[in-house]
Amino acid sequence: MTATSPFPLADKADVIRGVTFSKGDAVSLPRDGYTPVLRAGNIQGHLILDDDLVYVPERMVSEKQRLRRGDIVMATSSGSAAIVGKTAFADQDWIGSFGAFCAVIRPKLGKCNPRYLFHYLQTPQFREWTRNSSGVGIKNIRKSELDSYVVSFPDLDEQCRIAAVLDKADAIRRKRELAFTLADDFLRSVFLEMFGDPLTNPKGFKREKVALHLSKDRPGVQSGPFGAALKKHEYTTAGIPVWGVENVQANRFVDKARLFITEEKYQALDRYRVVNGDVLISRAGTVGRMCIAETAIQDSIISTNLTRVSLNPKTLTPEFFVSLFTYVPERLGALKANNKDEAFTFLHPSTLKVTEIPIPDMAVQQRFVQIVERHKGNKSFQEHDLRQATDLLAALSQRAFAGNL
């Protein structure tokens, strides 16, 4: 077993708080004299540096708040416990910064191996600690809490060896992730070929407000309501699943619940029930990210960090609707155009309702649905490979930090 010594994180790394700015300071498009800023939604296993950014005046960003190679970016504040504590590694210098709901953990030169520390911060024990972070509604990790968090470190040579093994496993996972992404790129190409860019609407489809195409069969869930605002003590370890932002990936529903409620509690919250075919939309993390609910579980509800849309099946298919907002070159551009908050940090159901979108004939939409259905088998296979690679990395990580690698 490898000998390790416990150290407060502050002994090995600097914890740097993100840039604080108001809604009035931020804009959603690049502008001279402004710096791009990452938010919690940009932390997705790797850093997303070219999408879902806001921009703030350069004068508001200090030198130490500029992202550097080797930095570990962490989401430190969110309404979702699943998001708080998520990390991603900066493998390149970047002319940009990170917002106040994030922090950077910057390893001190010669004090620790940056990749060792990054992998340690992915472990279940650290994520469990972050899930128990401060706050009832908004979960928050304070800088002082991170500074004092104790991490076990072997000597530097052993850190490098462990990091190298885990990096190889992570590289396999990343390749599987890339294959999964390329499969999604195929559907993006098909969508744009069949319908064109929804923002310019080159095929001349009629444009109508989303509100005109919501289901009338389920009153009260056409666009909302927001999910159930449950307190921590109301959750259980088994029972009726409660879907959160972690279940909503870009055009992909993750059918694995982390939170549950009792059957008795569910009876009082039936208005938040999820039906297959509902469009689920994230209100936290990557705001506006959406997918179609697809689960074999009969009874489940959405959490307060999600909202949903039930569409009129005679005029608008969920596959077209979700793809429209997922595959546009400027993602969610139509929603951004109508949102009152220029930085797009919150999605109001009223914004979605008044957004105009192209409405192709149902025959064209159904042809697209058929292609999506045929392609699901390939995506399921690639998702299986990705899950296996992720499980391998987790198993090796568990052994490494238990001193058994």
Question: What tags apply to this protein structure?
Answer:
single chain; 405 residues; alpha+beta; four-stranded antiparallel beta sheet; three-stranded mixed beta sheet
Helix count? 10
- Radius of gyration over all CA atoms, rounded: 22 Å
Assembly classification: single chain
Percent helix among the residues?
A: 25-40%
Distance between the termini: 8 Å
Question: Residue-averaged pLDDT, rounded?
Answer: 85
User: Beta fraction of the residues?
Assistant: 15-25%
The residue ranges in which pLDDT falls below 50 over 5 or more consecutive positions are 340-345
Decide which structural class fits the backbone. alpha+beta
Adjacency order of strands in the biggest sheet: 2-9-5-7
The major sheet is characterized as: 4 strands, antiparallel
The count of strands amounts to 21
Given the C-alpha coordinates, what overall shape results?
Answer: globular
What can you see in these coordinates?
With 405 residues, this protein is of the alpha+beta class. 33% of the residues lie in helices and 18% in strands. It contains ten helices and 21 strands. It has a four-stranded antiparallel sheet with strand order 2-9-5-7. A three-stranded mixed sheet has the order 4-3-8, with no helix packed on it. A three-stranded mixed sheet has the order 16-13-19. A hairpin with a 2-residue loop joins strand 14 (248-249) and strand 15 (252-253). The longest helix has 40 residues, at 156-195. The termini are close together. The model is unreliable at 340-345 (pLDDT under 50).
